[in-house]
Amino acid sequence: MNAEDTTMNSPTEAARAAETRPIANPLPAGVGAATTYMPPRGAPVLEGTHLHKQFALRQFRIAGGQQVVHAVENASLALYPGRALALVGESGSGKSTLARMFARLYAPTSGGIAFEGQPVLGAMGSTRSALRAYRRQVQMIFQDPFASLNPVHSVRYHLSRPLRLYDHARTKRQETEQILALLDRVSLSPAEQFIQKYPHQLSGGQRQRVAIAQALAVRPKVILADEPVSMLDVSIRLDILNLMLALKDEEQLAYLFITHDIASARYFAEDTMIMYAGQVMEGGPSDAIIQQPKHPYTQLLISAAPDPDRPTDVQFQARGEIPSLITPPTGCRFHPRCPHAMPVCRERFPDRTDLGNGQWTHCFLYGEGNDTTSTQASIAPTAAQHS
Question: The pTM is what?
Answer without folding.
Answer: 0.82
